[in-house]
Each structure stands twice: as C-alpha cells, then as structure tokens.
Design brief:
By secondary structure, the chain is mostly helical. It folds into two domains: about 140 residues, Serine Threonine Protein Phosphatase 5, Tetratricopeptide repeat; about 90 residues, Tetratricopeptide repeat domain (Serine Threonine Protein Phosphatase 5, Tetratricopeptide repeat, Alpha Horseshoe), CATH 1.25.40. The chain has 13 helices and no strands. The longest helix is centred in the middle third of the chain and has 18 residues. This is Tetratricopeptide repeat protein.
C-alpha cells in the first residue's frame, strides 16, 4: 500500500492537500483511500475541520491500514479543533488496531497522539509506551519516531518541573535527530538541550549551545528568534 510520507510538506498543508488529491485521482482503490485520509489531515492543518471530517465520512475501509488511518485522522481532527474527549476513543481504537495488525509506524503515531490528549500525569507514561514500540520495531519509519517521542516526553517532564529528567530526554532526542540526519530539526533538538540547561542554571553550557547555533545560522544566512531570545536571557 502506498506510503504518503514523501508527499508531505507540513509547512505547506495546502500544497500537500493538492498533491494528495492529484495522486488520488489515478491511484488504485486502496491507495486512493490512504491518500484521501491525508487530504483530511492536510485540511485539519488548515483548520478546515468540517471539510476534513466530510472527506473521512466518504471513505469505506477495505483494509486494516485504511481503517486505522481513518480513525487516526479523525482523532487528530478532533484534537486539533480542541475536543480531546472525542479524539481519545478514536486514537485508542487506532492504536489497538494498528498494534493487532503489526502496523508499527501507525501504532506509534496513534500512541503519540494519545499522549497529546492525555491528562498531564499520564503523558510521560504514554510517551514511553510509544517509545518502546518504536524501539522494538524492525520498521525504520517506526524507529525514527524516537526523536519526536523523546522530545514530547521531555516537554511533559519539563511541564511537571522535572528539568533533570527533561534534559536526559532532550539529549536522547538530539542523538536521534543526529542519526536521522535532518539539519534543521537537529538544530531544534540542540536548542531544547540548551533550554533545559538554562532552566537547570547550567548557564555556561546553555550559552555555548546557543552561541554555536547562532554561528551556524549566521553562516547559512538564517535567523531563529528562539535562539536570539535564549541568548538575550543568557547574556543579560
């Protein structure tokens, strides 16, 4: 079944929507269903929630993967529109069905979404559950979820005031980003480590990280207001 990932540009959901629609026109029936679930997701990112639900309403799953994707994307739509209570049972169903069908990447995605709609006290445990599935998988796409999951676990730990644990999670996320090899996201992961270090009052280490990021950005002709904000706080 088609992998829709290469068609995504999350910085351009409208363009992504159009690509999915164009591909769906000539796809075989099952691939078309997969692609249309991503149309719904792209509509959600544009805050066109009713249109997204309407797209999903028109889909009749014939395969386990399609059924999982419909539940997952409907849950994602409800979460994005601010209705976690409606999202939660759909995401639970998606996670359960994906796990039963051996669809590891979708299983991890659904668990990661469940953590986002969970009560704060449950977010770390759910994130770690998703991380365990990702690490045990033979699917590279599932394994590469570890970077995002570690970042999310770190944020939940930071929100709870445990910056020591958060730093460990952010350092794990950085190692994962370096393995995956996306320079922009690796810079974000380094920023998160520096941010946690500042909150732990390890200011010299935090300053070195932010100055290193600024030097890289300057060399590439780029700016990042978050780096500038941290430097202003650290150099004050």
């Amino acid at each position: 079944m088609i992998d829709p990932t290469p068609l995504w540009n999350f910085d351009d959901p409208e363009g992504s929507e159009q690509r999915f629609r164009a591909e769906a026109e000539n796809a075989d029936p099952d691939d078309r269903l997969v692609l249309m679930t991503q149309v719904a997701r792209a509509l959600g990112l544009q805050e066109k929630f009713d249109e997204g639900h309407s797209v999903l309403d028109d889909l009749s799953p014939t395969e386990d993967e399609v059924a999982v994707r419909i539940a997952l994307e409907r849950g994602r739509l409800f979460r994005s529109e601010g209705d976690p209570e409606q999202a939660r049972p759909l995401l639970e169903a998606a996670a359960r069905s994906a796990g039963d069908a051996g669809l590891d990447a979708l299983h991890v995605d659904a668990l990661h979404m469940l953590a986002l709609v969970a009560e704060p006290a449950d977010q770390v445990a759910l994130g770690e559950r998703a991380l365990a599935v990702a690490r045990a998988s033979s699917d590279p796409q599932a394994r590469d979820w570890d970077a995002s999951l570690l970042n999310n676990v770190g944020m939940a730990q930071a929100d709870a005031g445990d910056f020591g644990a958060a730093l460990g999670s952010f350092e794990g996320a950085l190692a994962a980003r370096e393995r995956i090899g996306d320079p922009a996201r690796t810079r974000v992961a380094r920023w998160m480590v520096g941010w946690a270090l500042r909150h732990l009052d390890r200011r010299d280490e935090a300053l070195a990280i932010q100055r290193g990021l600024k030097a890289e950005l300057d060399a590439a002709g780029l700016t990042d207001p978050h780096v500038e904000e941290e430097l202003a706080l650290l150099e004050a």
